[in-house]
Design goal:
This protein is mostly beta strands. It is 0% helix and 68% strand. Strands 5, 6, 7, 8, 9, 10, 11 and 12 form an eight-stranded antiparallel sheet that branches. The chain has a four-stranded antiparallel sheet with strand order 1-2-3-4, with no helix packed on it. It has a two-stranded antiparallel sheet with strand order 13-14. The protein is globular, with a radius of gyration of 19 Å.
């Protein structure tokens, strides 16, 4: 059911408006694979009337990685002097206990008249994976990306400053204890510019 994957909340940047995201499974979906249509809505908080809308057919897919969650991100994404964005986060999770995997992708949307326009498409902001023996011994990797608003560009839209932190962990059995050792975090930073109406996601960092 669509209600299994939906989220709704008032927009702190403008409490007169309420945001909603809904995922609708396609009829051909199976337990092993499938796709969902995505609706992103902006409604009047008092009347409930829809004031802006975006529908994306076959927007979210799943196979070995199952769809496990959707949420709204209402951090302060001020893209220009007059435009604010809000986010939709979609999480996929693997089913293997000994090779766990989970990732969350962030998309940003802004209102444009009666339309909700996507401006950032599925940037992976968290990921975690591992290979272990199911008891202790193994390795695990995690990455966290955070976004800060950069300076305004020539077209009046801010760049996205993305900070990345990756950690590699090794678990080993020593004297009947399970010891975990985190290597020094690897830090990176990159900038996503606004071009041709959207922010382009770097290759390899886009979710399903």
């Amino acid at each position: 059911m669509a209600g299994d994957f939906s989220s709704c909340k008032a927009w702190p940047a403008n409490p007169e408006l309420t945001l909603a995201v809904l995922l609708f499974p396609q009829k051909s979906n199976s337990d092993d694979e499938g796709t969902y249509d995505l609706d992103v809505l902006v409604a009047d908080s008092h009347s409930g009337d829809i004031v802006a809308h975006n529908h994306q057919a076959s927007a979210v897919s799943y196979d070995a990685l199952r769809l496990s969650g959707v949420s709204l991100d209402t951090a302060r994404y001020r893209l220009s002097s007059s435009d604010r964005a809000f986010g939709v986060r979609i999480t996929h999770t693997g089913s293997s206990r000994v090779s766990p995997y989970e990732s969350t992708a962030l998309s940003l949307y802004m209102t444009d008249g009666k339309n909700v326009r996507p401006v950032l498409d599925r940037l992976i902001v968290t990921s975690a994976s591992g290979d272990w023996d199911g008891n202790c011994a193994g390795t695990f990797d995690s990455t966290l990306r955070t976004i800060d608003m950069g300076p305004m560009g020539k077209d009046g839209y801010a760049a996205l400053n993305v900070s990345e932190k990756s950690v590699h962990r090794v678990s080993t059995v020593r004297k009947n204890d399970c010891e975990q050792n985190d290597q020094r975090p690897v830090l990176a930073h990159f900038v996503i510019e606004y071009r041709n109406g959207r922010y382009g996601v770097p290759k390899g960092l886009q979710g399903d």
